[in-house]
Amino acid sequence: MQPNARRALTHLHKEILACTRCPLSRTRVTAVPGEGPADAEIMFVGEAPGRQEDAEGRPFVGAAGRLLGELLALTGLRRDRVYITNVVKSRPTDRTDGSNRAPHPEEVAACAPWLDQQLAIIQPRLIVTLGAYALNTFLPGKKVSKVHGRVFRSNGRTILPLFHPAAALYGLRREILHRDFRRVQEVFAEIGLRQ
Ligand code: URA
Q1: What is d(CA 151, CA 93) in angstroms, rounded to the nearest whole number?
Q2: Which residue of 13, 85, 91, 182 sits 20 to 30 Å from the alpha carbon of 58, by its own alpha carbon?
Q3: Pocket test for ligand 1, best of 89, 164, 170, 177 (most atoms within 8 A of CB)
Q4: Which stretches of 41-81 are DSSP H helices?
Q5: Which residue from 28, 32, 45, 60 has its CB within 8 A of the most atoms of ligand 1, so it is best to mutate?
Q6: Are the beta carbons of 91 and 48 closer than 8 angstroms?
């Protein structure tokens, strides 16, 4: 690990917690910077915090998070050994009924520098995108249904797009997600062999 990486990440998390770059800062309970070691070799990037994440200040702790935990267990990866974050760090809330909603493009744009700084500090060897929003951040124009499970190199980064775990809550067959997540260890082993 770079000697100051942990300190830099802690400092960055504090800045994210105080962020007012978009109106979501006025409706959130707390920002959700991300969690995991500053020297994590694998970074998982989801969409945005939901209600539970907003309440706890931690990513993926609601229903999708429980599923992510199961899927990580399948791959043999420990949650505390990977870094987990989202494209958008504050919960997007529907103004009419207070439910979770997808982030707007201007919210994604306002948050982008935070993810860039997380990547610069952690320098993960593998980035796993969960769902369309994270995929679009790294590989604009690609469709998750077409490219999930395939490895891409872009801007010196290795990216593995996967379905978002919440897709199973909306009907995606579990086997597809299981197969996707098994790819994480396979791809990580392949990268290891090449270096
Ligand atoms: N879905 C996400 O994309 N991120 C979370 O943190 C929780 C649910």
Answers
A1: 33
A2: 182
A3: 164
A4: 51-56, 63-75
A5: 60
A6: yes
Task: Specify which residues 86 forms β-bridges with.
Answer: 46
Distance in Å, CA 195 to ligand 1 centroid: 32
The H-or-E segment that residue 179 falls in is helix 174-194
CA pseudo-torsion sign 84, 177, 62, 99: positive
Place of tokens 């860039």: 116
Are the C-beta atoms of 44 and 159 separated by less than 8 Å? no
- pLDDT tens track for 94-140: 999 999 999 999 999 999 999 999 999 999 999 999 999 999 999 99
Q: Residue 189's closest CA among 134, 163, 151? A: 151
Separation CA 3–CA 120 (nearest Å): 14
Cβ-in-10-Å burial (0-12, 13-18, 19+) of 76 comes to exposed
